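Now for one specimen:
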Amino acid sequence: MTTRDEAVARLTAPGAPFEIHTEDVLGEPMEVFAHRHRSLSELLQRSRGFGDAEYLVTTERRLGFTEHLDEVAALAQALRVEHGVGKGDRVAICAANCPEWVVAFWATVSLGAVAVGMNSMWAGPELRHGLDLTEPRVLIADEPRRALAGEQSVPVLSIEADLPAIVARHRGTASDPTAVDEDDPAVVLFTSGTSGRPKGATHSHRNVLCALWYHLLNDAVAAEMGVPQSGRRFLLATPLFHIAALHNLAVIRLAVGDTAVIHLGRFDIDRVLRLVEAERVTNWGAVPTMLGRVVELGDRLGDYDLSSLRTLSVSSAPSSPELKVAVRRSLPQAARSFGTSYGLTEAAMAATVATAAELEADPDTVGRAVPTMQVEVRDDAGHVLPDGVEGEVCLRGPQMMLGYWRNPEATAASTAPHGWYRTGDLGTLRDGRLRISSRRSDLILRGGENVYPAEVEHVIAGHPAVHECAVVGVPDPDLGQAVAALVVLRPDARTEQEELCSHVIAAIARYKVPTRWVLSTEPLPRNATGKVDRSQLVLLADAWIG
């Protein structure tokens, strides 16, 4: 029987459909897929071949490939003639998951413009920062985010109130994609800021298409190993402003003719499993918190018909070996293909992937580097470390972002010579398998969302009663980590936790707002250099909060 490694070697050999060879990428020699697509518009035009097959499905709407392409052409025409959107311009999208989000994305990139996926959980100041940074020609938003944006110089198109009329007005427009270079920017997605402001990771057409070609190769490998690849229906339950939902689901399903079943609204385990049942979902890529809710159902899981589910994966946050074992027990029909991965927004896709077999052998691994990606573990001086020695995980490949939008300082700080990206994560490599020992510096991973302490501290410190503050992550059985704030008040200050919480809620997304607070007049612990000692802070937070 063909092994996975044998299938990959055969399919990527010279002359094979997924041949990998070396080319110049932005001045550096890198391994690339030789027969890749060169633009996202190329995918879009080919999707008409899938006809009336379902592309996007919700409980409220079903959109086939032909209808989707027609709506994309209509919206693109409106953006071009009514708002002057052209190559290199930005179109911001800020909305909860819905089919119109995806239509807006494809309409934007078909014009050679840059789709700016804004975090739909942002507070008003964060949204306005994103708009100021990227200067879009137009903002496409649902009504709640339209209201949040307030008065703007940029035109705002409401998904509910404006888009239906716009599409109707331009329906019948022939698709007319703009020519682009594969290294032109296509998408900006935001990451939490290490220094207090969200940063816009900028992905080129090449970056996004790298994700596609990895998945196409995966499908071809699975087919060689006798795993059926037809009739797939993928659950889309993570936000479209994340690479997991946009690059690695919505884009790829359009390219291969699969269906994306979109969960609307907040994550609710009963509604999600009823959707899986009703739509006969076959594939689900989840964050650990979601799978934790599945496991918690216990015997009640039998109330749902999940027999269609045949592939399960976990990503976006670390998951414990215990959770993986519990998931296999709860969903045995999907356990044969239960995998995990390690990636980050800057990489546009997973950097490493662990198969079910690899997880069985080593539950702590996040797998091996995907084709065309290089992974090294380095010391503080940038030297490559031997197997088993902990250091900083560094990545290199054609899928790595162009940089942070209009932030050359942050881009320079995160890069090393010859196209290497410094993740800030600590890990070890052994026989090509990566283990992550701790995520980026002080990063808090709350339910699959990244929270950088500096961003939250910046807001808390703006309250007049606060002398100094620090934010840390503390263990949480459901979310993985919770956000905790240790606040030193001014000697004459009079304030309560509720007032500080309201102050923070007004400025940043709710998932970043501390749920655990310690108010004190004692100074924060510091090390010999005078910096706040975060390792001591975590211990203090655990002790004080209990």
